[in-house]
Amino acid sequence: MSLVIDPNSDLDSRILYAASYGNGIYKTTDGGVSWFPVNNGLGINRNISKIVIDPANSNILYVGIESYNVFSGENITTVQGGIYKTSDGGQNWIRIDTNPPQISVSDLAINPTNSNIIYSAVREHLDVNQKIMYRGGVYKSTDRGNNWIELSSGFGDNDNLNVGTLAINPQNPEIIYAGTFDRYYHDESSGRGIFKSTNGGVNWTPINSGLSNLNTNIITIDPSDHSRLYVSTEGNGAFIGIDDIFTSIDDQYENEIQIPEKFYIEQNYPNPFNPVTTISYQLPKSAFVNLSIYNVTGQFVETLSNEHKSSGYYSVEWNASGVGSGLYFYRIEAGEYTETKKCVILK
């Protein structure tokens, strides 16, 4: 599931794109009240892994699609994915990863200061139709996707290289993080952990100190502290990375040594959602907390919390079964701290 909001659209006519495995891409121009499909040119493969908007031109979007195999008796057919681009807000899509092909794309990231530069995270996949093993790794384009080069120096053996997630430091876009994962439908463990590049992907160095599992699927950079990473692993929980050394977040909770340094509210997860989502927030000191939901016109919908809380980490569920699809806002007031974030119900 991937969701992006057009940053240039007006609040009253907010434009969003939602994409998911199997269902393709949907667009709304009224803040989520109504949705319509925008899949012309994508072909039959709708296994969308990521959708991103060009920060310099919101009519330009890119989607990454993962490949899959179709089994019919003893016959196997590969349906390729790839990278597709639209220059007209989703009306028409064309495939742009043909030089070289990247048939199974797990993630995409655009340089926030230079939208000509795009990175893709690719997993290897055997196209049984062509009898060609397409390599995984990290690929880079410097001309908005017209041409690509593979940048896998430092990952080790190119065989069984599966890159699933990317994160670009917004303050210094030359710093990029890549996470690897296990080969699909295979007994051997092929996760290689987290890799870091300080020169725009030319070279990569593993930064796995403290990780107990090298099969990683999510990397997030702390928006308030770009030296801090949050990493999700397959089967061993989440980790926090400070100065490229990781510590289990679970261990920190169990040992009761982690005290929030500041007030902060997380982006709800999942998002979009139907009908339940979780909102997490942190308090560095005790405060009276009001957490409420509002619709796109600013009308009050529901209060999720309205009580005094001690310092610590909190999560609250919102069951939105009683309201319709669309864009909503959740707002926290804790002492002098206030913040509002967006969420989307997609029914």
Strand order of the largest sheet: 1-2-3-4
Q: What percent strand?
A: over 45%
The chain-level mean pLDDT equals 90
Instruction: Name the CATH superfamily classification of the largest domain.
Output: YVTN repeat-like/Quinoprotein amine dehydrogenase
Total number of helical segments? 1
Remind me, CATH topology of the largest domain? Methylamine Dehydrogenase, Chain H
State the shape.
globular
Biggest sheet, in brief? 4 strands, antiparallel
Give the class-level CATH name of the largest domain: Mainly Beta
Total E-strand runs: 31
Distance between the termini: 14 Å
Q: Radius of gyration, Cα only, in angstroms?
A: 21 Å
| Low-pLDDT residue spans | 253-257
Q: Name the CATH architecture of the largest domain.
A: 7 Propeller
What is the count of structural domains? 2
Q: What percent of residues adopt helix (DSSP H or I)? A: under 10%
Structural class: mainly beta
